[in-house]
């Protein structure tokens, strides 16, 4: 049995979305997003105490990008990966892992706006800087989606893939700190992929404790 260790609205959501797309049997172990990720029991699954961790085929994996590669290879028939030799393989790898470039800024902003307990600990400079760096990431996605190829609806020319899932989920987190208003192609793509039933199934269920209590956290203006 595949077991995903997951915290709502974090990077593990991209693995959850992928598992739903793959239509395989799996269990989700929802964990609170707190110090319990440092308990020895969880550190034995994920040595730095991070989510996601995935138990599969008697092994435990961590790092969302690696987990997504493994799942796409293991369930290759679902067509969400691009195997070696595929013309879109290099772009698939680039975009799959670009999700982490986006998410590092969301993680810094989550720390600034949510994790730090006292206002005196927060830095308006870091808030503005990290939000600006998110917009640079949006610009990269916008440029890609504006590249004139026929039917450019997804990040890859060959259509929907795990790269859209990884970057789409990274944008899900990022939108809490930087709006998509100036990025029309990215907004269109995001609206389209997040209608997918597998994305909707990866959202926190009604009543669950969410990471993001608000839809948007503006940078402090001082
Ligand atoms: N590069 C790793 C990052 C994992 C990561 O830092 N996950 C965050 C949630 S988005 C986490 O577990 N944070 C808990 C902590 O830092 O204590 C991945 O993509 O899996």
TrEMBL record:
Molecular-function GO term, any one: transferase activity
Keyword annotations from UniProtKB, A to Z: Transferase
InterPro entries: Glutathione-S-Trfase_C-like, Glutathione-S-Trfase_C_sf, Glutathione_S-Trfase, Glutathione_S-Trfase_N, GST_C, Thioredoxin-like_sf
Family annotation (Pfam families): GST_C (PF00043), GST_N_2 (PF13409)
Coiled coil regions in record: none
Start and end residues of each GST N-terminal domain: 1-79
Gene3D superfamilies for this protein: 1.20.1050.10, Glutaredoxin
Occurrences of domain GST C-terminal (ranges): 85-216
UniProt name for this protein: D-fructose-6-phosphate amidotransferase
